[in-house]
């Protein structure tokens, strides 16, 4: 899909993505969604392993399409001298490099900061790893699951009488990817603000160093300050929120559940009257969060006694009329049917291979945040492996067909 570049704030920015799995490619996706030309470098033959994660039919998973839309794909063998030479040539044509390998991997391939800066003294380098580029754990391997545990999140997820659970998505990777994209944009903004200044900052000051566990930890609100200030040890509380009540999930008569956040003082009083419990609304011992938290079991029991007499829609309608924040616990089917998502362009169609005889039109998550009143349209699905290798090597590096054939033949021989 063609879109006016005036609507794309990152149009004109070219990004080289040495990304695999979720964290690095998520950063690239955010930049691509807002107009950057993102060239995804994949290894020959297999490419990014995400291509086959949760692949039910066809050749490319919906997960890969979701995270790698709006990008170009080229294949390079970064372990070979030829691949490394081409990579550095591409760095000369890019404003940003993103990588999420284990620390030291790029250096081992001759693509470390020293070589990148020599190739392009103005490049912004974004590096994502489990524990960052420095510190005693820098060399340790780790995926998002480990980072979520290390950052404190896993300890708080689940029911209090059961082992820690996990969020149903790779939230640590996604948070790290968002932090990376933000860091890249800040670095580009800083570089632009200096204009034509003859003073060139060292690459170290333009390196965005994102550790998965730190990205998770940054989302943990006052977990550590509460511990240091009060000696408080937060524990799992299921669907509740520590120290805040009543807020929880409640089952309705039709088997559906709703989440109700009735914890503001004035909201609480409206809430209790809406469920027919005015004596709780006026109870002097329930007029602030701390007091309500101490009686959370009593309040939850009263609320669910009411919700179990009504359907989900009836519960939500009553609470909406009373000005109490509440919502359904949506499934994928619920989201697809929800008018609010459609109204803001948050489910957008792309034609992709699903294993059927012909490509199918599938809805994908829209672009967040909304700019100019509507979500930016998705331009392209994720590319086939190496779909843009010839185009990129020809257009950016000026290689002719013979030279490109030699590069591709060498990669095939190495794979074989």
Describe the structure.
This protein has 416 residues and is an alpha/beta fold. It has two domains: 271 residues, Rossmann fold, CATH 3.40.50; 86 residues, formyl-coa transferase, domain 3 (2-Layer Sandwich), CATH 3.30.1540. The chain has 19 helices and eleven strands. The strands form three sheets. The protein has a six-stranded parallel beta sheet, sandwiched between helices. The relative contact order is 0.14. The mean pLDDT is 93.
Total strands: 11
Q: What is the domain total for the residues?
A: 2
Structural class: alpha/beta
Radius of gyration: 25 Å
Low confidence ranges: none
Feature tags:
2 domains; alpha/beta; formyl-coa transferase, domain 3; 6-stranded parallel β-sheet; 11 strands; 3-stranded antiparallel β-sheet; 416 residues; Rossmann fold; 19 helices; EC 2.8.3.-
Describe how the helices and strands are arranged.
Blueprint: E1 14-18, H1 23-33, E2 37-42, H2 62-68, E3 71-75, H3 81-91, E4 96-99, H4 105-108, H5 113-119, E5 124-129, H6 144-150, H7 153-156, H8 171-193, E6 207-211, H9 212-217, H10 223-230, E7 247-251, E8 257-261, H11 265-274, H12 278-281, H13 289-294, H14 296-307, H15 312-321, E9 326-328, H16 332-337, H17 339-343, E10 347-352, E11 360-365, H18 389-395, H19 401-415
Parallel strand pairs: 1-2, 1-4, 2-3, 4-5, 5-6
Antiparallel strand pairs: 7-8, 8-9, 10-11
Helix pairs in contact: 1-8
């Amino acid at each position: 899909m063609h879109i006016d570049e005036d609507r794309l704030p990152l149009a004109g920015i070219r990004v080289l993505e040495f990304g695999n799995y979720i964290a690095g490619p998520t950063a690239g996706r955010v930049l691509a969604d807002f107009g950057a030309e993102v060239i995804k470098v994949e290894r020959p033959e297999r490419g990014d392993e995400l291509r086959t994660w949760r692949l039910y039919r066809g050749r490319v998973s919906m997960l890969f399409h979701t995270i790698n839309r709006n990008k170009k794909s080229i294949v390079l063998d970064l372990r070979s001298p030829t691949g490394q030479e081409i990579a550095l040539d591409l760095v000369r044509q890019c404003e940003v490099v993103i990588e999420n390998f284990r620390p030291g991997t790029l250096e081992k391939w001759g693509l470390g900061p020293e070589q990148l800066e020599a190739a392009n003294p103005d490049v912004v380098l974004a590096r994502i790893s489990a524990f960052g580029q420095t510190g005693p754990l820098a060399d340790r391997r780790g995926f998002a699951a480990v980072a979520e545990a290390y950052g404190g999140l896993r300890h708080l997820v689940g029911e209090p009488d059961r082992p820690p659970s996990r969020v149903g998505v790779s939230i640590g990777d996604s948070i790290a990817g968002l932090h990376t994209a933000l860091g890249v944009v800040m670095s580009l903004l800083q570089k632009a603000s200096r204009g034509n200044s003859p003073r060139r900052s060292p690459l170290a000051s333009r390196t965005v160093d994102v550790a998965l566990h730190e990205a998770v930890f940054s989302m943990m609100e006052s977990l550590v300050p509460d511990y240091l200030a009060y000696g408080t040890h937060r524990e799992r509380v299921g669907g509740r929120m520590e120290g805040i009540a009543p807020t929880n999930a409640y089952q309705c008569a039709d088997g559906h559940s709703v989440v109700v956040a009735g914890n503001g003082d004035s909201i609480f009083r409206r809430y209790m009257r809406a469920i027919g419990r005015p004596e709780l609304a006026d109870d002097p011992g329930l007029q602030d969060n701390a007091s309500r938290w101490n009686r959370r079991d009593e309040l939850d029991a009263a609320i669910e006694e009411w919700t179990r007499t009504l359907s989900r829609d009836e519960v939500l309608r009553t609470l909406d009329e009373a000005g109490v924040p509440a919502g359904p616990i949506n499934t994928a089917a619920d989201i697809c049917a929800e008018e609010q998502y459609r109204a803001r362009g948050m489910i957008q169609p792309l034609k992709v291979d699903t294993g059927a005889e012909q490509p199918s039109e599938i809805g994908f998550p829209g672009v967040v945040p909304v700019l100019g009143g509507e979500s930016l349209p998705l331009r392209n699905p994720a590319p086939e492996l190496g779909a843009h290798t010839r185009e990129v090597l020809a257009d950016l590096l000026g290689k002719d067909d013979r030279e490109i054939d030699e590069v591709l033949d060498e990669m095939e021989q190495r794979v074989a």
